[in-house]
Amino acid sequence: MELAYIPSPSRGVVHLGPLPLRGYAFCIIIGVFVAVWLGNKRWVARGGRAGTVADIAVWAVPFGLLGGRLYHVITDYELYFSEGRNWVDAFKIWEGGLGIWGAIALGAVGAWIGCRRRGIPLPAYADAVAPGIALAQAFGRWGNWFNQELYGRETDLPWALHITSAADGRVPGYYHPTFLYESLWCIGVALLVIWADRRFQLGHGRAFALYVAAYCAGRFWIEYMRVDDAHHILGLRLNNWTALFVFLLAVAYIVISARKRPGREEIVEPGAADDAPAGEAAGTTKKTADTEATTDVEGEPDATKKTDAAKKTGAEEKPDLGKKTDLGRTDADVEKETEAARDADGASAGEKKDEAESASGKS
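Request: output the structure for the sequence above.
Response:
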């Protein structure tokens, strides 16, 4: 008798009148919402507009679902097109069967279409949504729990998954909960990408490539534990080979991209800076003016730029008494000479006045 295990739900669908509410679909929907929410926060932090991630997701999500289903149907075609099977079942996506490889590949095509319509670079968008996609997978894997599918080998560990269904060739018993392993791994991948992005300022698609590489590393050993039917090549499951191949591509992309395009994109969405609040725009303008007024091309004070900055702020420009004129005299010397000339003019005027008064007295 097992004292501890993870129970499986008695059923994966609840009927609300004629409307079936399926746990598998709910997990996918929750994952999509989390991915869009987190992606939007990261996109805005990178300088993009709020709502852009959701608008592009309108293209990416349907393409991703279609790609995930196509990959599953193609790689497990015997489930739908062999003798005794009904090919119509290939369209019943709610019953499970989405291949992440196809979902990411075709989802990227949809994202590219959405980005192109807005003039946004796809790599920058991919970097923003990468951790959210990992979290979406973490939620989506719980759909396998509702369907009692994709579990691992038998085990007597306390966290073993109790399979109770005998449909489709299942054997009731206690198995490794590979859905849980992958869900936890995806959460770790999301945290890794967020940390690395902040630490190393990843750009030009490298954050997304890190997500792909990290996910593939975990998927390789999790896939190796599964016991569901799959095609094998040289003793390894097809998805093992896929994970290995995609992992190498992702690592190669990170290395090559870092050499050819180091750093991060300065502008991710054209025109987004113009939508900033007036206060923020004014603050940015003031900082730019201060910087320009303080330093010229050679790093020395530039009086002309200081004057322009002072005019912008309404401040009066004071003359620099220490500045030399073309004749080698300073402004201070000119000021002194001017005052002396005024005094001389005043003295001359006084003398002329006295002479006039004396003449009047004599007359």
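The chain has twelve helices and seven strands.
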